Amino acid sequence: MSEAEETERATLEKMSKIWVGQGFKVFIQPSGKLLPGFLQRYRPDALLIKDDDKVLVEVVRKGQRNAEERVRRLKELMVNQNEWRLEVVYSGENVVSVRRVAANKILESLRSAEDLLTKEPRASLLLFWASLEATVRNLFPNQTSRPQSPGRIIELLAGSGEITPSEAQSLRDLMMLRNRVIHGELNAVVKPSEVKPMLQLVRQLLKSMLE
């Protein structure tokens, strides 16, 4: 086994513990019988299955040639395949686990976000999003041991019925704004009137969590 293959195998073994903890059945280097037909001859590095949540895993090594092309090709094969999603794992990087935060700490964060709302609305937005993810981590502990993308946070809340479709859309709008700010668009306009209702939404989620 080459050094590159050994690194990939070690990465999959490390990640498997996390996936199993999230309730997935994990299939490393799956055989043809397990592979969905739309993949044609492509063989992913792993399959994850938990009820209706089905995941194709592609491990990308640092310095790997044609890595972006492989991921692009896989995404093309998955177009219109709504039953499956893709997770790209980068080998050689540390796997970060995020611990849950107590509800009182989240409430403190929300109060800070409210204090910043009129003076520094961009900072308020980012603190709100951190509070939202911390809340979601408490609501779905088995699915959020690692940092979550903003889209995944909304998906978990909407899919479980914790928020309404209109609330999900409001969060998606804020997600786009959050992404612009966090990636350096420092002149992006954040309106307090857009953030304030979502702060209340997190409070409601916390209340339902504690009941």
TrEMBL record:
UniProt xrefs under InterPro entries: AHJR-like
Chain ranges of the REase AHJR-like domain: 3-110
Matches recorded under Pfam families: AHJR-like (PF18743)
Stated name of the protein: REase AHJR-like domain-containing protein
Organism of this sequence: Rhodovulum sulfidophilum (Rhodobacter sulfidophilus)
Lineage: Bacteria, Pseudomonadati, Pseudomonadota, Alphaproteobacteria, Rhodobacterales
